[in-house]
From TrEMBL:
Keywords: Membrane, Transmembrane, Transmembrane helix. The chain crosses the membrane at residues 95-115. This is Uncharacterized protein. It comes from viral metagenome.
Length: 120
């Protein structure tokens, strides 16, 4: 009984220590393309148009021949102050035709409300 209790404590301690190990996350790597969730290190280049087709970061991390679970090619992104707002704007830019239309709708709704509800 006492031996099984010690074994149980050892297993729990080992499981806890495995969970607390710091892991290298792709979102913190300088090669991570956030808005596409791709890794800039792995992929192919179209020789006709010059377009880059990068592998998804998840695929690169699952493949031990590439970055792998240990993140062999990980490099800390020291420019996060610049890259995070850049990708935020880039993602928002895909919705740019919607923004002016939404603004006009709000303005028209406000004008219509003022016409239908005059203040005395």
């Amino acid at each position: 009984m006492r031996g099984s209790l010690i074994l149980l404590i050892a297993i729990q301690t080992n499981a806890l220590s495995n969970r607390l190990l710091p892991t290298k996350l792709c979102k913190d790597c300088k090669h991570f393309i956030a808005h596409k969730k791709e890794c800039a290190l792995f992929g192919d280049t179209d020789l006709i148009y010059g377009k880059h087709d990068y592998n998804y970061a998840n695929t690169a991390r699952k493949n031990e021949d590439k970055c792998g679970e240990k993140a062999l090619y990980f490099e800390e992104n020291t420019n996060k102050i610049v890259t995070v707002p850049y990708y935020f704007i880039l993602n928002a830019a895909t919705y740019w035709p919607f923004m002016p239309v939404a603004l006009l709708l709000v303005l028209y709704a406000g004008a219509f409300y003022k016409l239908t509800h005059p203040t005395n």
